[in-house]
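Retro notes (design track)

What went well: tokenization of the new backbones is finally stable.
What didn't: we kept losing track of which sequence belonged to which structure.
Fix going forward: every design gets posted as structure first, then sequence, in one message. First example under the new rule, 244 residues:
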């Protein structure tokens, strides 16, 4: 399948989310699906369209940590873009990779993400997609993407490696994905989370980062670079839903 690949580089959190929203609005004029790569000019966190971040985050602590906040055009929970690899996929409604069934769209994208993670790790590990939503430890934990697995997230055993949120319109759908690269910092979480203990424990219990052991910034940079290549390759080799 032929994809249009966009890499818009370093931008603010608000600019990244605004660009995804604009791409979704213009999907009707596109004949090919889009793989959108972007990075963050500052430590960032995004939150689902219907979430009030002040209910779950200590905004003073967020400010002290220099974290930029932005609302996503998709749903889902809060994601910290300090320890992850983020990307977006946009599929026009006229494309053979589009389904009216939202879960089929999640499965289509995350099957490619699963293969990309396997290629990245260079191991024959059993990766899978979780079949159902896992229960949240409490309401706060249910509002953080990496604090509980949800249906069709990419899993290694019982722990989540990749999650996503989608928004579908008559033009097509936007899938915003995140892949965990390293574990969150206790110091940062302790300052920015209102329900810090439970959410931090849930993240540790449910998240499996791709990079293990001591990790420095160059490791994260190189991981993001490689993930761009393997994800692009796996999506281009995906079989469209309507050809299966």
């Amino acid at each position: 399948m032929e994809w249009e690949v966009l890499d818009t580089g370093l931008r603010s959190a608000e600019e990244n989310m605004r660009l995804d929203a604009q791409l979704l609005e213009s999907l009707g004029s596109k004949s090919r699906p889009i793989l959108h790569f972007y990075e963050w000019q500052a430590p960032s966190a995004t939150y689902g369209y219907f979430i009030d971040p002040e209910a779950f985050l200590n905004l003073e602590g967020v400010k002290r940590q220099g974290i930029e906040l932005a609302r996503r055009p998709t749903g889902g929970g809060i994601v910290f873009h300090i320890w992850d690899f983020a990307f977006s996929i946009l599929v026009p409604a006229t494309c053979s990779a589009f389904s009216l069934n939202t879960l089929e769209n999640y499965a289509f994208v995350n099957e490619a993400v699963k293969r990309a993670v396997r290629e990245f790790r260079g191991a024959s590990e059993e990766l899978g997609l979780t079949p159902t939503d896992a229960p949240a430890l409490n309401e706060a934990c249910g509002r953080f993407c990496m604090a509980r697995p949800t249906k069709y997230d990419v899993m290694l055993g019982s722990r989540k490696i990749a999650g996503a949120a989608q928004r579908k319109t008559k033009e097509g759908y936007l899938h915003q994905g995140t892949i965990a690269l390293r574990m969150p910092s206790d110091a940062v979480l302790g300052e920015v989370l209102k329900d810090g203990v439970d959410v931090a424990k849930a993240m540790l219990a449910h998240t499996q980062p791709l990079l293990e052991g001591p990790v420095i910034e160059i490791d994260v940079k190189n991981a993001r670079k490689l993930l761009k290549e393997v994800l692009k390759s796996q999506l281009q080799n995906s079989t469209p839903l309507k050809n299966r």
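Added context from the reviewer: The first strand starts at residue 4 and ends at 11.
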